[in-house]
Each structure stands twice: as C-alpha cells, then as structure tokens.
UniProtKB/TrEMBL annotation, chain A:
EC number: 7.1.1.-
Domain NADH:quinone oxidoreductase/Mrp antiporter transmembrane span(s) in chain numbering: 157-383, 448-509
EC category: translocase
Membrane topology listed for this record: Multi-pass membrane protein
Example of a GO biological process term: ATP synthesis coupled electron transport
Reactions accelerated catalytically: a quinone + NADH + 5 H(+)(in) = a quinol + NAD(+) + 4 H(+)(out)
Similarity comment: Belongs to the complex I subunit 2 family.
Protein name, entry field: NADH-quinone oxidoreductase subunit N
A GO CC term attached to the entry: endomembrane system
Membrane-spanning intervals of the chain: 12-34, 46-65, 85-103, 139-156, 162-182, 194-216, 236-261, 273-294, 306-325, 332-353, 359-380, 462-481, 501-525, 567-586
Function: NDH-1 shuttles electrons from NADH, via FMN and iron-sulfur (Fe-S) centers, to quinones in the respiratory chain. The immediate electron acceptor for the enzyme in this species is believed to be a menaquinone. Couples the redox reaction to proton translocation (for every two electrons transferred, four hydrogen ions are translocated across the cytoplasmic membrane), and thus conserves the redox energy in a proton gradient.
Keyword Translocase (UniProt): yes
UniProtKB/TrEMBL annotation, chain B:
UniProt GO molecular function: NADH dehydrogenase (ubiquinone) activity; NADH dehydrogenase activity; ubiquinone binding
Membrane-spanning parts: 15-35, 55-74, 105-126, 138-156, 162-182, 194-214, 240-262, 274-297, 303-325, 332-356, 362-381, 401-423, 435-456, 482-499
Naturally occurring in which organism (per UniProt): Cellulomonas triticagri
Full protein name: NADH-quinone oxidoreductase subunit M
NADH:quinone oxidoreductase/Mrp antiporter transmembrane domain mapped to chain residues: 158-448
Region (Disordered): 515-536
Length: 602, 536
C-alpha cells in the first residue's frame, strides 16, 4: 500500500480552467513587476485573451464530448461532459462581456473601483490616492480567479472539489464587492454582509458534506448515488446532509429564504462587478445544483420535492413582490434576479431531460440580459452641483444640453464628450439648442434611484431602447431570449409533473411584468427629475436610500447624464443585445446544440 | 385576372404572399428609422426625414396591393380550407413552426388590416398641425404603425399556436408605445393599464399553450393547429385549457367584465391608434375564439356556451348603456365596441353556421365602421381640441360634409339596412334565434339602444344652433376625404352586395360548426343568473 501510483490525468480536458487560473496567476505577477502605467493594458490583454481562450477551448472540446458523452478527469474530481461544457462556455462568454464592462473607464477617465481598496473611506489617505489618480488593476486577476472557480463549480464530481471551487469563486467576489469607488461605506457594508452570510452558507455546505461522507463513506458523486440507492438504513444522515448541501448551493443562487444577501451585495458592489456576479455566479451555482440534483439525489426525489417546491414558489413570489416596491434600479434588478432564480428552479426540479436543456438555455438568456442591463446602469450617472462657479447649483431646467463640459472639477477630470443632460422640459424631445457656456457640475457615481431615470428615453433613445430590450427579456416577452427560456422551463416543469410550479411561475411573470413596465414608463413617458407625477416614489418607502452611510459622496441631485463609454462597454452591451434578440428569434440552433449534449454522466 | 398568363405566373398561390405581407411593413419601418437627416430644435425633421410621411404612405399602399394580390391568389371557392400555406421549422426542439396560411376569415381580416393602415397614416399626416414639414415624433409613430402592421397580418395568418401566441404578445409592445408615447394627458396610465391587462391575459394563455402542447401529439410540428385539432383529452383538462385561452381572448376582445382597459386606452390614444386597436387588434380576441377555442376544445366550448352567451348579452347592453352616458366621444365609441363585440361573441357561441358567418363578417364591418368613427372623432378633435360632446353643437350648418359622413358612419354602427353592418348583425341574430331564442330576441332589442347612442350624439354635436366659437370651423379637407371616403365606399358596396364577402366567410363557418360537432341545437336556454357588474 506504500507504492504511489501516479494518476493518469487528461490535462487537455481541463484547458478552459487551466487557462483562466493560469492567467490569473500571471495577472498577480504583473501587478508586482510591471510598471503602473503599463499595467492596465497588460492586464486587460491577458484577461481578455484568457477568457477568449477558454471559449475556444470549450469549442475545441465540444466535438469529443459530443461523441463520447464525456469523461472523468483527475480521478473523478472533475467531470467534463455536455452540461459542463455548455456551462463553462456560457460562463466564459458572460465573463468576457462582463470584463469589457469592468474595463470601461468611460469618458470620465475613471473606472468603477476605489483607487485604494485598503484606504479608510473618507480618510486623507483615500483622498490622496484619489488626487494622485491611482486606478485599480488588481481587479482583473481577481475576476479571473472567480471565473476559474466558476468554471470548476459546475464540473465537480466530488463534494470536496465542490467546496474548494465554491471558495475559489466566492472569496474574490467578497473582495470585489467592497471596492466601489463611490458610496464606499455602502460597498464595504455589502461586502461584509456578503462575506458573513457566505461564510455561514459555506459552513452549512461543509457540514452537509461531512454528513454525506458519514452516510456513504465517499465524497464522489457516483459512490454517494450508489449508496443512496442501496438503502443503508441511515436515512436521517442522508436527508440532513443532502438538505445542508442544497442550502449551501441555494444560497449561492440566491433562492428564498437564502437570498437576503442579494439586494445589498448587488447594490453595494461596483456596478460592473454586480453584472459579473449576477450573471456568472448564478450560472455556475445552478450548474452545480443541477449536477447534484440529477446525479446524486434523484432517488431522494420524493423526500426533497416538498422543500424544493416550497423554495421555488417562495423564490418566485418573494422576488417578484419585493421588487415591486423597490426604488433603486440595482435593487430592482437584484430582486428580479431572485425571481429568475425561482424560474430556473422550476426547471431544475422537473428532473427531466428537457429540464436540463431548458435550465442551460435559460441561464444563457438570463446572463446575457443581466450583463447588458448592468452595463447600461454603469453608464447612467448623476451630475453633482457646480463647485467651480461659486457654489451655484445647476438644475436640469437651468442648463440645457451642452455638448461639452466646462466646469469640470478634480473628481470628474476629463471632459464628458457626448454627455447630454436630461432636461426638465417634458415635451421638448431634443437635447440641443440651449445657449452654450453654462457650467455643469462634475459627473458623480451611478444614478441608481429610479426617479433619476425619468425621461432617459427622450434624451438617449438608443441606450434606453436597449435597456427596454433587456427588461422585456427579463419579463419574458416573445421574440426575446427570456421568453424562449421561460417557455422551455415551464414546459419542462409541466412535463415533469410540476405544473403547480409552472402556474405560479406564470402568475409571477405577470406580476413581474409590472415593475419592468414601470421602468419603461419612467424612461419613455415621464418628464425627467421629479415632476408632479412620480409613479415610483409615491407611497413606497425609500428602502435603498443610504443617506446615513456616506452622505458626503452624494451631492445634491442636479441632473442625470449618460457618460460616453470608451467602447468596451458598448461592445459588451451590443453583444448582449444581439444574443438576447438572436436567442429570441432563432433559438433553434442553440437549443439543438444544448439538447444534443445535455446528458449528465455520473 | 384578365390575363390568365399573368394570373398564373404572378398571382400564383406558390408565391409566399403572406410572408411578403408580413415582412414588407417591417422593412418599411426599418427604412423610416434609418432615414438620414436630423431634427430642428423644435422637433421638425430635416434631410430625407422630411419625406417620412410619403415613405410610410407608399409602403402602406404597396401593402394594400400585396393584400389584393393575396386575395387574387386565394381560391375563394375553397375558402373553408387554409390556403397560401407556408410551413418552415422554426424551433423544432419545442415543436414550433413558422406556419402561415389563411382561410376566408383570416384573409378577410388581413385585408381589413392592410386597408386601414394607409388611412391611419393619412389621418396622422398633420398630427402637429403647424407646417408642411413632419415632426420627428410623427416619423417614429408611423414606423410603429408599420411594425404593428406586420404583427397584425401575421397573427391572422398564423397556423401554429405558439406562433400565434408569440405575435399575440409581441404586438402589445408597439401599441404600448403608440399609446404611451403619443397619446393624451393620461396616456401613461392608459398605456400601462392596457399592457398589464393584455399581458396578464396572455400569460394565462401561455399556461394553456404549454398544457395544450403536452396533450397534443408533440414532435417537431407539435404546435401546428391542424395537428392539434382533434386532440384527445380528458374533459377536465379540456375545460381548463379552454378557459386559459378564452380568458386571454375575452380580455383582448374585450368582453364584460374584463373590458375596462379599452375606454381608457381609446380615450388617451391618438385617433389612428384607436382605429387600429379597436378596429383590428381587438378582433384577434374574437378571431382566436373562432379559430382556436372552438376547433381545439369543442366539448368545452359547448360546455361553456351558456355562460358565455349570457356574458355576451351583458356586454351588448352594458356597452350600449354606458356609451349613451359618455361625454367623451372616444370613450363613447369604445363602449359601442364592447356592445358590438358582444354580438360577435354571441354569434360565435351559437354554433350555427349562419351566426358564425355573420360574426366573421361582423368583425370586418366593425373594423370599418368603428375605425371610421374613431377617425372622424379625430377630425373633430383636430378642429376643436376636445373630444367632449358638450364642447360641440350645430356643426352641420358649418361643416355639412363632415356631418354627413359622420351620420353615415354612425348609421353603419347602428346597422342600418343598406350598410354592411346590417347584413352581419342580421345574420348573427337570425342564426342565433333557433339555438338561443331568448338571447336573439334580447340582442335584437339592443339595436334600439344603438340608435340612441348614435343619433343622440349626432344631435348634440351637429344639430341645433351654431355655437359662436365654432362658426368658422373648416369643413372636411381633401386629405380627410381620402381618409374616410374609402371606408364609406366599402361599407356601401358590401351593404348592397355582400355576396363576395359572405363567400369568404361562409365555408369556414360550416367547417367550424362541423369541428365543434353540434348535431342539433340545444333545446332550451338554461336559466342562469346574469352577473351584475359595474364599471369602475
């Protein structure tokens, strides 16, 4: 027994994971050795190349897996089969798009991240770092590490790898959440909450793993599945263990009642990170959940069904209802992502072959719309009061759309080339024609309060129109990807006998349509900035207002601007819009491709 | 078809006329949006965008020609079968096909749609009447009208339940923007109410669509209507699925008690939007009942018929009574539509070939007369800046032509003999009588109410002493004549010579009756409690 037998490892199967994790390590070295000036281009190149390489690697592995059905790698720790490749491809594509949004410094010349993550908010040290014009580049390796964890997560073949992958993807996300440039206290609070609740969920998962190990004597999915079938008389151990593991995963997908971190983390995190987190984490976590549910626990179906049904129904209901009263666009999207987790769950619990296809398709559709939507949120900014012009506050009515900035201060830095200020005039649809030369305040953080989005459709029809497209996809309107996904998921649920879930899903979709439509109304049919009719703020408590957190960063609201992208974010948003339309109008090829490999191997 | 050679080569049924009809307006809309040019500070178009109205009108007229071509390629002798068929796989994994095809009823409604569109474009010509140059808003509006045309044509031609559902939902989006972006002061409220009502109905239907597919034969063409007709299912399932479909169609139609979105939408929307909304879109509801509910769920249709007939009767009276009480003319016309839709639904659920043919013909006529009324009210609003009846009076001395066309169109709405609506209403009542005797008698009484709401409105708006502030009101102009003229011409022609139209709808009606499988008319109308309801 002392002889060590070197395992035979099919490294080629791991190419996507190795590429991304390797690039992440290189990224750390770049931080250490490359001069500051050159870091951003180098990091960006490495990151984009690694993610694109991962996409290519997935495509290269596709043919083999389609033929053989898939293989175990690393002694069964990682399983490379059809669903794995689909999920890895989805994650890599979405991460690539999200990185484009992350990389965009916009016309203000600033990215979304704090200049010095370690600086105390409001301290002189922070101000010095800001004045020195420092910009983060550690973000890129962190994103790559998280992506690497996500690529492993849905491919795990044993419980220990599941746990390790979970931590690899989570830890960088906790960190990234706390790095917002604006509203830093809110961001750090979000990070803290996310970390504490995440640690709690990890502990539950680990405890569940221990119990399952005690039940079956193995960590491998295949062995546990055999033990489940064998009926060893330790059902209590099995059930509690399975429940705890499921809870750990349901936390990551943000299902009710394990969702409470979602709105805070989504709101506090830098918006590009929110998009990354909302899209990619959910894909990865659902991938792991599907594998666990379909490979390990199908024989527990009757025992787990009441819990999973309850969770799915509660997730759809709570996500939808709570989203109805939100006043912050990031929180609306956060709760809508909770509701979407519920829709995906209806497909997961269907336990049919078409359920896997439906879930995989839904995740792609949802992810594309999410990255795009948060990309747009990151471009809509608020404009502060003018400090240079003797404390005079420009209001939307006082200054018209001026195509260039004159009163830029230290924080805004560069000129905002094509920013057009939203005007208070309701029926005047054009943004030009006012006398030039009025000073304008600095461009601040994102204008996330819904009332600040009023009239955006009149001043920036294309941007607002694209946002509408994403909202319609979330709402599941036909000819968008979201509809195809919803249809596939509900059909699978009915087929699998879970028709009450499909009915609840349909009702929740109808209710959810209300708050998506409300945003459309606000953007297209409402006058900007606090007119007499404000359907959003009326009567609903301002849950999102964090005035106590750091009031200093929030200058008086003087207007909403759309900052020009450097191009990266526009490419990402455009790609997301294309995916959303293509998957809605001609979903056939993608559905076909997924269905042809949607076979989990134990 | 004077030249047989031309007819066989160009007007062949093998040409994908329906796809052309569907794609052409979409292309035109894209062209409108892509027109180069800019906007002046006060919102007027510059550059090529100044020609947006002409482009839209030209496209709409070409669409009419395409519609005529489809009619010529259609074999009216076999109107009961679907023709001009096109079937392509769309999402075979989900059993969805891109399948188009029309029977006589579908074709009639497609023609109604394409005929109304150029009139709506023309009516919107000077939406903001302050110059020869169109505003940029008008360009967006016209493009939305064209996008809507695509969906309208496609939904009447869809032969695939999934495709039908997709179009049914997708067409809400352009209408939503047409109401919310271009309407009156409370347009936001009206647009959202419209969208949420329709969306809720649609999602209920989605549940039905999924359920129906799983009951059906499945496979790559599992959603084709002809594959689903005759599906064997248990009574309970059939009734649930029927209800899911029916509720969506009742909202759309709109029937009492789910009609409350219509008056708001019609009041706030521009006249052209209301014309398409009530004249065409609402027909999707009754069209769906006729072509999906009855053939797919025959047993459940017979089961539900008594209740639906009662609801239809309530709609007829409720709509007519509320119309009499309205001050806003847009709301008035909207409520008359609720009444008319009651007639259409009554005819459909009488399951007699006469009444169903009458209902099918009624759908077309209602589009003409109600569409005409909306457009005429739009003319009045353009003159007075108000749609309230009390703001008018004695106009017939100042604007005799406008008064005349209003009277003719209004008489058409009350089904005066000689106008096309009379034929259809007569057929509905005659066809219903042997089946639901009492219902037919009650419905006939409603014609009196129709006379009140039409003639009393005419009296208050057009007769009496001329109000001082209206003394210089201009009479109907050349452009407006071209808007209303074609409608009145069609109404008169079909009123005196309805045979061609009836040939289109007669055979489909027989087919439907055989699909529902009614052997003999039910003996007596069961006693049911008519539900009392109130409007908001």
């Amino acid at each position: 027994m002392t002889e060590f037998i070197a395992p035979d490892i099919a490294w080629a199967q791991l190419t996507p994971i190795l590429l991304v994790l390797g690039a992440a390590v290189v990224g750390v070295l770049v931080e250490a050795f490359v001069p500051r000036r050159a870091r951003r281009p180098v990091q960006l190149t490495i990151t984009l190349a690694a993610l694109a390489g991962a996409v290519v690697a997935v495509a290269a592995l596709w043919g083999g897996v389609a033929d053989t059905g898939g293989t175990d790698v690393l002694l069964g720790s990682v399983v490379v089969d059809g669903p794995t490749l689909v999920l890895q491809g989805t994650i890599a594509v979405l991460a690539l798009l999200a990185v484009l949004v992350i990389a965009d410094r916009t016309a203000t010349g600033e990215d979304a991240f704090a200049p010095q993550g370690a600086a105390t908010p409001g301290s002189g040290y922070e101000e010095a770092a800001r004045a020195a014009g420092l910009q983060q580049t550690e973000v890129y390796p962190l994103v790559l590490f998280a992506t690497g964890g996500m690529l492993i997560f849905p491919a795990t073949g044993d419980l220990l790898t599941l746990f390790v992958a979970l931590e690899v993807l989570s830890l960088p996300l906790y960190l990234l959440t706390g790095l917002a440039r604006r509203r830093r206290l809110l961001s750090q609070e979000a990070s803290m909450k996310y970390f504490l609740l995440g640690a709690f969920a990890s502990a539950l998962l680990l405890f569940g793993i221990a119990l399952l190990y005690g039940f079956s004597g193995s960590l491998r999915y295949a062995d546990i599945a055999t033990a489940v079938r064998a009926d060893t008389g330790m059902d209590a151990l099995l059930l509690v263990g399975a429940l705890l593991v499921l809870v750990g995963l349901l936390f990551k997908v943000g299902a009710v009642p394990f969702h409470s971190w979602t709105p805070d983390a989504y709101q506090g995190a830098p918006t590009p990170i929110t998009g990354f987190m909302a899209a990619c984490t959910k894909v990865a976590a659902f991938g792991a959940l599907v594998r666990l549910f379909y490979v390990v626990l199908p024989d527990l179906r009757w025992d787990l069904e009441p819990m999973m049904w309850t969770v799915a129904i509660a997730t759809m209901a709570v996500g939808t209802v709570v989203a109805l009263v939100q006043t912050d666009v990031k929180r609306v999207l956060a709760y809508s992502s909770v509701a979407h987790a519920g829709f995906v769950l209806t497909g997961v619990v269907a336990l049919t072959q078409s359920g896997i296809t439906a879930v995989l398709f839904y995740l792609l559709a949802y992810g594309a719309a999410t990255v795009g939507a948060f990309g747009i949120v990151s471009l809509v900014r608020e404009r502060g009061a003018v400090r240079a012009a003797g404390g005079r506050v420009t209001s939307g009515a006082a200054s018209g759309g001026v195509p260039h900035v004159e009163g830029a201060t230290a924080t805004s830095g560069a000129a905002v080339a094509t920013a057009v200020e939203v005007r208070a005039d309701a029926d005047d649809t054009d943004g030009e024609g006012a006398e030039p030369g009025e000073p304008e305040g600095p461009v601040l953080g994102e204008a996330t309060h819904l009332s600040q989005w009023a009239g955006l459709g009149r001043t920036n029809p294309v941007l607002a129109g694209t946002f509408v497209l994403f909202l319609l996809s979330f709402a599941g309107i036909p000819l968008t990807a979201g509809f195809t996904g919803k249809f596939a998921v509900f059909t699978a649920a009915v087929e699998g006998g879970a028709w009450p879930l499909a009915v609840v899903g349909v009702v929740a979709s109808a209710a959810a349509a209300f708050f998506y439509v409300r945003i459309i109304v606000l953007m297209f049919f409402t006058s900007p900035q606090g007119g007499p009719q404000q359907p959003v703020t009326a009567g609903s408590p301002d849950v999102a207002d964090e005035s106590g957190a750091d009031a200093g960063a929030r200058a008086p609201r003087a207007g909403t601007v759309v900052v020009a992208s450097q191009g990266f974010a526009l490419v990402a948003i455009g790609a997301c819009a294309l995916i959303t339309i293509a998957l809605g109008v001609v979903p056939g090829p993608v559905l076909d491709a997924i269905a042809s490999v949607a076979q989990l191997i134990p | 078809m004077s030249s047989p050679a031309l007819a066989t080569t160009v007007l062949s049924p093998d040409v994908p006329w329906l796809t052309l009809l569907v794609v052409w307006p979409l292309v035109a809309a894209a062209v409108l949006w892509a027109l180069p040019g800019g906007t002046t500070p006060d919102g007027y178009s510059t550059g090529a965008r100044r020609w947006s109205r002409q482009v839209a009108l030209g496209a709409a007229l070409v669409e009419v020609l395409l519609g005529v071509a489809a009619l010529l390629a259609f074999d009216t002798l076999a109107a009961g079968t679907h023709q001009l068929l096109e079937t392509h796989a769309w999402i075979p994994q989900l059993g969805v096909s891109y399948a188009l095809g029309v029977d006589g009823v579908g074709l009639a409604l497609v023609l109604l749609s394409v005929v109304l569109v150029p009139l709506v474009v023309l009516a919107a010509w000077r939406e903001q009447d302050s110059g020869k140059v169109p505003t940029d808003r008008l360009r967006h509006y016209l493009a939305l009208v064209l996008v809507l045309t695509t969906f309208m044509v496609a939904v009447f031609a869809a032969r695939d339940v999934f495709l039908f559902y997709v179009l049914f939902e997708a067409m809400l989006i352009p209408v939503y923007f047409m109401i919310g972006g271009f309407g009156g002061p409370r347009r936001r409220y009206a647009a959202v109410k419209f969208l949420l009502f329709s969306l809720a109905g649609g999602l209920i239907m989605l549940a039905g669509v999924i359920g129906l597919y799983l009951q059906g034969p499945g496979g790559e063409q599992g959603f084709l209507t002809e594959n689903l007709i005759g599906t064997d299912m248990s009574t309970g399932v059939e009734r649930w699925l029927f209800l899911a479909f029916f509720v969506a169609f009742a909202v759309k139609a709109p029937m009492f008690p789910v009609h409350t979105w219509l008056p708001d939408a019609a009041e706030q929307a521009p006249a052209g939007t209301s014309t398409l909304l009530v004249g065409v879109l609402d027909k999707v509801g009754t069209f769906g009942m006729l072509t999906l509910c009855l053939p797919l769920f025959p047993e459940a249709s017979r089961w539900a018929a008594p209740v639906i007939v009662v609801l239809a009767l309530i709609s007829i009276f409720y709509g007519a009574l509320l119309a009499i009480g309205q001050q806003d003319m847009f709301r008035l016309v909207a409520y008359t539509s609720v009444s008319h839709f009651g007639f259409i639904v009554l005819g459909i659920f009488a399951f007699a070939s006469t009444s169903i043919a009458g209902s099918s013909f009624y759908m077309v006529n209602h589009g003409l007369s109600t569409g005409g009324l909306f457009l005429l009210v739009g003319f009045l609003v353009a003159r007075r800046g108000s749609a309230r009846i009390e703001d008018f009076g004695g106009l017939q001395k100042v604007t005799p032509v406008l008064a005349g066309v209003f009277l003719v169109t209004g008489l058409s709405a009350l089904s005066l003999p000689g106008l096309s609506t009379f034929v259809s209403e007569f057929l509905v009542i005659v066809g219903t009588f042997p089946v639901w005797e009492a219902a037919a008698v009650i419905a006939a009484v409603a014609v009196v109410l129709a006379a009140i709401y039409v003639l009393w409105t005419y009296q208050r708006v057009f007769t009496g002493p001329v109000r001082d502030d209206l003394a210089t009101t201009p009479d109907i102009g050349a452009r407006e004549r071209w808007v209303i003229g074609p409608l009145i011409a069609i109404m008169l022609v079909l009123g005196f010579y309805p045979a061609p139209a009836l040939r289109l709808v007669d055979e489909p009606a027989r087919t439907t009756v055989s699909q529902v499988g009614v052997e003999a008319p039910p003996a007596d109308m069961p006693m049911l409690d008519p539900e009392e309801g109130s409007d908001r």
